[in-house]
Amino acid sequence: MIIRNNIGERIGFFRRLHNYTQKELGKLLGFSDKTCDVRVAQYESGDRVPKEEMLKKIAAIFGISPYALNIPNIRTWASRMHIFFAMEDKYGAEIKKIDDEYYLRIEKTDSQEPMITGVRNAVLQEWVDMYSALQKGAISREEYDRWRYNYPLQGEYGYITFVRNEEEEVATY
Fold first, then answer.
1. 118 with 163, same domain?
2. In this structure, which long-range contacts are made by residues 87-92, counting pairs with CB atoms below 8 Å and at least 24 apart in sequence?
3. What pLDDT, in 10s, does the model give residues 60-91?
């Protein structure tokens, strides 16, 4: 089976995570009994791509952000590398080798844009804080997954509490 888009792959991932069959998910989405499993199978295979409103509906059923469904292609190393290259071009990401380990610095501080740099650093700090809390046992894997699959939300667990307007945030990048 060839998956032509990551949206289909992510729908299948979350469907299985929630223990739904394709037919059950299709019924929850409001498709008829005759077509409910076929439509979800088409989404998952990439034969059909859900429109934005349908993505929102699917995300709501899973209790996640639509962003968790619509991610770039990361199935091959070549596509992952091009994501990193784009981050290098757009945000100044840097790759370094330190003590035989490779590290990707995602954001380079921009002295010309301290406000934007501060927001980006705060967003990354939120991730570090949540991941550290998971590693220390301060939050459960379920809480961590709920946070990341619903990102971006206001800091639900008290780590970062600023509110992000998604459209404004995208415009600043």
1. yes
2. 90/173, 91/120, 91/173
3. 999 998 988 988 878 788 888 888 888 888 87
